Amino acid sequence: MRPNRALEIGTGLFVLLGFAALLFLTTQLPGSGVQIGGATGYAVSARFDNVGDLKVGSPVTLAGVRIGRVAAIAFDPTDFKAVVTLDIDKRYDHIPDDSDASIQTAGLLGGKYVGIGPGGSETYLHAGSTIEFTQSAIVLENLINKFFANFASGRGAGSASEPQESTKP
Amino acid sequence: MSVVPARDGPITTILRRIGAVVVFLASILAQCVPALARPRLIVHQIYNAGARSLIIIMLCGLFVGMVLGLQGFDLLQRFGSEDALGVAAALGLLKELGPVVTALLFAGRAGTALTSEIGLMRTTDQLTAMQMMAVDPMQRVVAPRFIGGVFAMPLLAAIFSLVGLFGAQLVGVQMMGVDAGAFWSQMQGAVRLDDVQEGFIKSLVFGTACSLVAVYEGYHTEPTAAGVGLATTRTVVTSSVLTLLLDYILTAAFL
Amino acid sequence: MTENVRPATASAATDAVVEVRGVHYAVGRREIFAGLDLAVRRGRVTAIMGPSGTGKTTLLRLITGQIAPASGEVRVWGERVAHLGRRELFALRRRTGMLFQNGALLTDLDVFENVAFPVREHTNLPEPLIRELVLTKLHAVGLRGAARLMPSELSGGMARRVALARAVVMDPELLIYDEPFVGLDPISMGVIVRLIRQMNRVLGITSIVVSHDVHELAAIADDSYLLSQGRCVASGSPEDLRRSDSEVVRQFLDGVADGPVPFHYPAPDYRDELLGGTGRMRIGGRA
After folding, report:
1. In chain A, which residues have their Cβ closer than 8 Å to the Cβ of C113?
2. What burial letters (b/e) apply to C249-260, b meaning 16+ CB within 10 Å?
3. pLDDT over threshold 60, residue A1
């Protein structure tokens, strides 16, 4: 059969596209990889005892408004804490530097995000600052254990009705 | 001398048909090695089965993904977890919709084309003519088309899933306002390589089944104009049913 | 290319290329051949005639080894076709060319590639040689100018001529024509008749022509056989047949509607059926 240029180009294109899709699905979907939009803000770090299943790319919010995303999660071997780098949009440059950061869960089945609670300081967070006040992720098992412990000691179901504190086991 | 053929009941008919298809598969596989020595024929068939189905696959992938985005959003919103949309869309597409819808579209688009092409070759004596020229049509006609189909299906399914994901993202993130970071990060957190692999294996199995049915029906077409039409219909029906049946079996096996 | 080695087991009638002896063959319950005998001699054009439905095409399929007889034997170049393995059968087929009723050209290849097909499949000849070979054969059938047309662009007669070029491109020793005259206009018919004779006389190819076009066959056949109801009912040169006073031969040659080959398909009594008689269908066996 005579070689057919258009046919071979078409096939090549298709196979390339197929393998590219396959490659993307196998490498980019599981684990972390995709960076939607590069870093457009300034980096602020926060140290947590436990980040739960917070992921790179998870949103950072202030008063429920998204102001940035988690850029990196690392582990500090000296004090066994998680160092979370937050990439905060340049537009939000008036966040008091005594604000606190907490890891919260969106909805019943939702993922984790970092919520910023504004402080009252006159100085603001800037690239390289560290948020001092942090509250770690609430681990559901611990919460349940606490509830049962309280229940067993006869003090009733005190804090069991706290909303939105759930995570996948 | 002439043995009166025993009349087959419905069960015997089905058994015979399955047996015939399996024997046919074996004889294709036997011809695959010599067929692979002629990559140009296979390239041609990958083009026919894959490249020519690309547009319809991408179009359908986009719409399926967008519907998934809407429905998923609506459902997840009720639990206040619309951030999980990425996970829902990715898993739905990778494990189920990608392989299955691609296989169904493949049966309709490439499968029918294969059947009617081979069926027409049967009807116009082209297959017999090849045999008379000492060329084995199993090797020259059937095996390359089969290989082309088996090869094209996983690639088509991958493209379908990817475009679908884009569609879901389009609706979920751009229209419904799900957070882009949450969409992708949650997806990456929940999707495992196993899930991608499951979809890949499924589409490989569906590709084998649909291609086999298509070339079998074509090769065994009753050599009349009506025969080609009937064979084409049977290809769509058998491939679709087989795809969904195999999907259940594979899903059960993977869970 | 073609092996020119004669098989060691040459048959008694040394110049018989094809021998059919006592062949029985049935499809389901319908018997097609009940003890068929005939022979095709080397270098001659043998015509096989018969009314529709007498199994002429079935005979060709027996000769080419596509099907096996229930009993009796079919020998081609002394070898029992039905007993050959795939490899030997394919070797045999390389020495045989066949022209199908509708040409059976491969629809996805153009005329040139169709003729080149067997060459490309069986040899590793360099491109210029293939080109020369193909163009020679196309020229012989007068279609060198149509080399780049697709089969769908050809008329019935042209398609058959291309198929003929393809059938002879590997220089076969035996050429089989299945109904070569069906559906052709008189001019195309004349062309095909001339080509068949030419292939036979010039190239010395043994030819089998299956047809029911009595007059065209008379012009080219050296030997002819008339098949009817599973047997060979008459044989000899076309001249012999023409002089024959056998009822079957006369009916066939003169085109009489009713005779040994009945006009009516077996049916229950006409009057019974019209009068609403519930009389069971009498299955009148044809063989």
Report:
1. 1-2
2. bbbbbeeeeeee
3. no
Q: How far is B40 from chain A (nearest CA, A)?
A: 8
pLDDT digits 0-9 by tens, C154-208: 988 889 889 999 998 988 889 999 888 888 888 888 888 888 888 888 888 899 9
CA pair distance B110, A87, nearest whole angstrom: 48
Which run of H or E residues covers position A62? strand A59-62
CB contact (8 A) between residue A108 and residue B80:
yes
* pLDDT 10s digits, B131-176: 888 888 999 899 999 999 999 999 999 999 999 999 999 999 988 8
CA distance B232 to chain A (A): 25
Residue type, C39: A
Distance separating alpha carbons of residues C99 and C209, to the nearest angstrom: 10
At residue C126, the pLDDT reads 92
Most distant CA pair in chain A: distance in Å?
87
Phi, psi (rounded to 5 degrees) for C263: -70, -40
Q: Which of A144-158, C60-74, C149-163, C213-227 has the lowest mean pLDDT?
A: A144-158
Shortest alpha-carbon distance between residue A12 and chain B (Å): 9
Check whether B178 has a pLDDT greater than 60.
yes
A7-21: pLDDT as tens digits: 888 888 888 899 888
Q: Which residues of C touch A2 (CB under 8 A)?
A: 113
Give chain C's domains with CATH numbers.
42-64+90-274 (3.40.50.300)
C287 to chain B, any CB pair closer than 8 A? The answer is no
pLDDT at position C282, please?
52
Residue B91, token pair as written in the block: 């898993």
3-state secondary structure of B205: helix
C partners (3+ CB pairs within 8 A) are A, B
Strands (E), chain C: 16-27, 30-41, 45-49, 71-76, 79-80, 96-99, 174-178, 206-210, 223-228, 231-236
Backbone angles phi, psi at B239, to 5 degrees: -60, -45
Sheet-wide strand order for C96-99: C96-99, C174-178, C206-210, C45-49, C223-228, C231-236
d(CA A94, CA C272): 108
What pLDDT, on the 0 to 100 scale, is given for residue A155?
A: 56
**Residue A2: closest C-alpha in chain C:** C113
Verify whether the Cβ–Cβ distance B126 to C107 is below 8 Å: yes
Q: Which residues pair with C18 in a beta bridge?
A: C40, C76
Instruction: Tell me the per-residue pLDDT of B13-29, one tens digit each, with 9 for 90 and over.
Output: 888 888 888 999 999 99
Chain A residue numbers with beta carbons less than 8 Å from the beta carbon of B54 are: 14, 17
CB C198 within 8 A of CB C3: no
